[in-house]
Design a protein that fits this description.
Strand content: under 5%
Order of helices and strands: HHHH
Structural class: mainly alpha
Distance between the termini: 44 Å
Number of strands: 0
Largest sheet: none
Radius of gyration: 15 Å
Number of domains: 1
Shape: extended
């Protein structure tokens, strides 16, 4: 994030992430021995945001499994 621009404009700029990027981050967190915090830090994300993406992916997977049966 460009802190100089944020300081000059006085407004927070929200980043938007593609569904593909979110899916890659969720899969990275599911690797054995990998922490959510480490993935978040390495990708300049908030760990709580990443956890919410994981929860949404899990709920979608659960709904898909229910509809397939």
């Amino acid at each position: 994030m460009d802190t100089k621009q944020e300081a000059l404009s006085g407004r927070r700029r929200w980043r938007r992430h593609s569904d593909e990027f979110k899916a890659k981050m969720v899969e990275a967190c599911r690797a054995p021995g990998v922490s959510v915090a480490a993935v978040a830090l390495a990708n300049e994300l908030n760990a709580n945001l990443l956890r919410s993406w994981i929860a949404k992916a899990d709920s979608r997977a659960g709904l898909l499994a229910l509809t397939e049966n």
